Amino acid sequence: MSLFNREKVRLARCRVDYNNIPEHIAIIMDGNGRWAKKRALPRAAGHAAGAQLIETILEYAGNIGVKTLTAYAFSTENWNRPEDEVNALMGLFDKYLRRAFKKMMLHDVRFHLLGDIEELSPSLKSLCTQLEETTKNNKTVLFNLALNYGSRAEIAYAAACVARDAANGTIRPEDVDESAIEKYLYTAGQRDPDLIIRTSGEKRVSNFLLWQSAYSEFVFSPVLWPDFTPACLLEAISEYQKRSRRFGKV
Ligand code: FPP
Ligand 1: distance of its center to the CA of 29 in Å? Predict the structure, then answer.
């Protein structure tokens, strides 16, 4: 970390209450394309910079006590991007996940994929499955990677599972409640995100965690994802700590 960044972290740190760190932070990592364009680089270079950064942010988040970090890496709609960009992203996921085994074991991180694994290439599918299996007993941080993820599809899938249960008599239709749906979501059994950060100044949800974000706090950072430092994360946490979370109560 450069001296300048270290100073920014120090300043941001002053404003953070370490007894009130959000347990689950989810991030919409936006702005890779614009970051690359500003530097006259191909979009893939922005994604590569963004991929490197998620490692830093994951490690930092774990160090300050975040229990779950969820990163939105590829949506079901992202398949509509130009073929070379999709290929570059798939290559990055492959490279990142291959080298993640060692680091995740070292930092006691459990990996979990959010998304439809069936549409991934056989090698990526097998990497994700192996990484989930290898890290399944790790406890310090849970890292959810949303890859080929779409929240509406996730909810529709859960509804179909519940309909199947009703049809085969496992559940009566009148007993279908929130927990009956929740257990079929990719995030089954997990705490909902306390804080959702979207970088790059865009203020959209983009089909991300629609069910799980019912009471999440949103922070929109103007910083493009590849420039999002640990200090930016602390600033977002500091903003979160100013909010009064009432969960519908007064
Ligand atoms: C959105 O920025 C970003 C994506 C669609 C890809 C996110 C992927 C990464 C950060 C890298 C891969 C992560 C891992 C875990 C290996 P954009 O391309 O829409 O940017 P723009 O809005 O500036 O065009």
Answer: 6
